[in-house]
Every structure is written in C-alpha cells, then in structure tokens.
Amino acid sequence: MINRLAASFTLATALARAGQAALRAAAPGGRRRWERTNFAGRTVELYAGPATALAAAVAAGRVRPAAGWAVLAAGACGAYDDVAGAGDPRRGFRAHLAALRHGEVTSGSVKLFGISAAGLLAGAALKRRPLEKVLAGVVIAGAAHAVNLVDVRPGRAAGAVVALAAPGMLRGGPGAELAAAATGAAAAVLPDDLGERVMIGDTGAHALGAALGTAAVVCNGRAGLLAHAAAVVAAAVCGERLSEWARAL
Predict the structure, then answer these.
(1) Sign of the alpha-carbon dihedral angle for 168, 240, 75, 105
(2) pLDDT mean over 223-234
(3) How many CA atoms lie within 13 A of 179 on its CB side?
(4) 198: DSSP letter
(5) For a disulfide at 188, which of 13, 70, 237, 245, Cβ 3.0-4.6 Å?
(6) Residue 239's pLDDT is what?
(7) What's the pLDDT score for residue 81?
(8) Separation in Å, CA 233 to CA 56, 130, 180, 230
(9) What would the 3-class secondary structure string for 119-177 be?
(10) Counting Cβ atoms within 10 Å, is residue 103 exposed (0-12), middle (13-18) or buried (19+)?
(11) CA–CA separation, 44 vs 192, rounded Å?
(12) Distance between CA atoms of 153 and 63, rounded to whole angstroms?
C-alpha cells in the first residue's frame, strides 16, 4: 500500500513540476498572457494552474478514471473563468446567478454549472446507490468550489488541500491513493505559491478541490458522505466569511 501511495504522490508531484517547466519554456501565446498582478502588486506566473490541474487529473485517473475526468473538467471550467472572466469584479454564486436571471451568462455561471455537472457524473460512476451518487456529486463539486473560496492569498488553496488531503492517506485503499495524488499536486506548487512567484488561479484551485473531493468520496460511505456534503454546502453558504477568514490567516 505504501508503494501505491508513494507512486500516486510522486507522479502528481513530478507531473506538476514538469508541466510548469514545459509551459514556462513554451509560453503559448506569449509570456504576458501568463502573467497576473497579485493582491500585493507583484507580478506572478500562471503556469502552475494548468500544470497542477493536469498532474492531479492524470494521477487521480490512474486510480479511478472517473476521478481523473472530474478533476480535468473542474480545471477546464476554472481555466475558462481565468480567461473569460478576467477583470469581472463579480464574485460568489449569488452574483453570477443574479446575472443569469437577467439573461447574462457569465463565466462564473458556466463554471458553476460545468463543475456541478462533472461532479454529479463522477459521483454516479464512483458510487452504486442512488443517494450516495448524488451526495458524492455534491461533495466533489462542493470541494472544488470550497478550495477556490480560500484561494484569496498566496498558498491558501494549495495549503488547505495538503492539510485536508494528507490525513486521507492513512485510510488505505483507492481513496488513500487519490488523497496522495491531491497532496502531491498541491505540495509541488505550494513553495512557489507561498513565495508569490506563481498563482494557481481558478484552474488549479478547482482542480485540486475536485481531487480532494474524489478522495473523500472514495474513502467514505453514506454517513461520511452526508457529513462531507453538509460541510461543503455550509462553505458555499458562508463563502464570503470563509474567504475573509483565509485572508486573515
């Protein structure tokens, strides 16, 4: 079991680092496209987001294909918001749903429904009983959104994933391997993220959150799924407070 955990962790870490290096060397579309200004006014690179998403997806898919596709879909939806939603000041479900009620389809609403659909499809594939399928979908999509909520300062999202996923490696089985994949991908970018050299953006935050969610789904039965679903729903309801708490850390 230890060998399988090490393989998942190492694969995710190596792919995340190699992906960053490859993107930095190629800089598709020009280097300026891959640069953003963070909260402190420093210029940071976005290579870590796609690299982390792909690494987590491949490592998770090696354990459970449905988990890999969920992570990849969450990362793709986040990437769309990173590009199409750049400069949009609206944040949170309420703002994007309000815009949708007025006939405006924002990148945030596309992300919301896209990740929710991916989570439900993955939950249906990972669990057998109808209620558990639905709860699993809520956990996966909710975890993806919850991690993005704390991505308000350097290292908060990746650090949260390491802290929450690492204990799952003690559970054993495929769930532990998925936890190792999430931990490895997050740990690979955490030092540069904390050092304000890179930013994982919505791409990386949503992908890491989905990886964390799939690990929780595979590790837990109905009672555990209920508890995790309640936690991610509470995080969504208290999203602004959660983000403020993350800023204050």
Answers:
(1) positive
(2) 96
(3) 22
(4) B
(5) 13
(6) 85
(7) 84
(8) 23, 19, 24, 5
(9) HHHHHHHHCCCHHHHHHHHHHHHHHHHHHHHCCCCCCHHHHHHHHHHHHHHHCCHHHHH
(10) exposed
(11) 10
(12) 31
Distance CA 28, CA 5 (A): 33
Structure tokens at 191: 């030092």
**Contacts with 141 (C-beta within 8 Å, 6 or more apart), sequence order:** 74, 115, 116, 118, 119, 120, 210, 213, 232
Smallest Cα–Cα separation from 165: which of 79, 21, 249, 59? Answer: 59
Interacting residues of 114 by C-beta distance below 8 A, sequence separation 6+: 73, 76, 77, 80
The residue behind tokens 């815009």 is 99
- At 197, give phi and psi (nearest 5°): -100, -25
Q: Could you tell me the two tokens for 207?
A: 């992908």
Alpha-carbon torsion angle 24, 28, 29, 33, nearest 10: -40
Q: Which two tokens stand for residue 130?
A: 């109808």
Is pLDDT of 62 > 90?
A: yes
Instruction: Assign 171 a pLDDT band (cuts: 50, 70, 90).
Output: confident
Please name which of 176, 173, 145 lies closest in space to residue 239, comparing C-alpha atoms: 145
Residues ≥6 apart with Cβ < 8 Å to 23: 34, 47, 50, 51
